[in-house]
Amino acid sequence: MNFKINPIFANSTELIFEKIKMFSSSGELFGNGDRNKIKLFDLNGKAINIKSFKIPNLINKVAYRYFRKSKARRSFEYATILLEKGIGTPEPIAFLENFNIIGLKDSYYVSEHLNADLTYRELVEIPDYPDRENILRQFTKFSFELHEKGIEFIDHSPGNTLIKKNSEGTYDFFLVDLNRMEFHSKLTFEQRMHNLRRLTPLKEMVAVMSNEYAKFYEESEQKIFDTLWKYTADFQEQFYRKKRLKKKLKFWKK
């Protein structure tokens, strides 16, 4: 077993460890739990969540023990790095890895639970969402700041940014689902645009984002739009191709 806790929560080490041990029989389920399961717990009056990662296949069991860090460990370490770089994410609390003779058996990531006002997904799905364009523009500036700090958030997708309105009427952004991330000294233009490709299939949103990104970057708005829209269209085509293929496979299995 490998268990590590954020020093801020050192006084609650035993309590946190106990909550992880009781994960299967306690806690309040959060979300649908299709792949990874998240449950909410109370920690001395503070809402926390514990994420239990899907049990890996045989190859990954071995890989996560000997060759790669587990998703739980990466989530904890990447959250720590993000906060050090001034990027919002729920406070990391702990991670735990259980191993057996083969490799990684199961793993858990514990973090602060953040009650968000919305995610980026609402901006895509609700065209008349209040203050939509302003939120989209602030989100684009947030994404630019990520890129300027060399952060490539590989799962930069609609559900993985929590958004909270603050008292000044502006918005704060918090990244979640952190286990796939890379850090660079500098991101190229192509890497920046490629990183934004999964966010929306809507051309008008891409146009607003391109206009806003161009305010902070040296490339023209037109070049940003053309490049980002190409990557977006390519991603959407690939996404729906995979969806159609899965549908056909399910049909033949029947």
Radius of gyration: 20 Å
* H-E string: EHEEEHHEEEHHEEEEHHH
State the helix count. 8
Strands ordered across the widest β-sheet:
1-5-6-4-3-2
CATH architecture label of the largest domain: Orthogonal Bundle
CATH C-level class of the largest domain: Mainly Alpha
Number of domains: 2
Shape: globular
Q: How large is the share of residues in beta strands?
A: 15-25%
* Strand elements, count: 11
Structural class: alpha+beta
List the keywords.
alpha+beta; Transferase(Phosphotransferase), domain 1; 2 domains; six-stranded antiparallel beta sheet; three-stranded antiparallel beta sheet
Please describe the topology of this protein.
Blueprint: E1 2-5, H1 13-21, E2 28-30, E3 37-43, E4 46-52, H2 58-66, H3 71-84, E5 92-99, E6 104-112, E7 118-119, H4 120-125, H5 132-148, E8 151-153, E9 161-165, E10 171-175, E11 181-183, H6 189-195, H7 203-213, H8 221-253
Antiparallel strand pairs: 1-5, 2-3, 3-4, 4-6, 5-6, 7-9, 8-11, 9-10
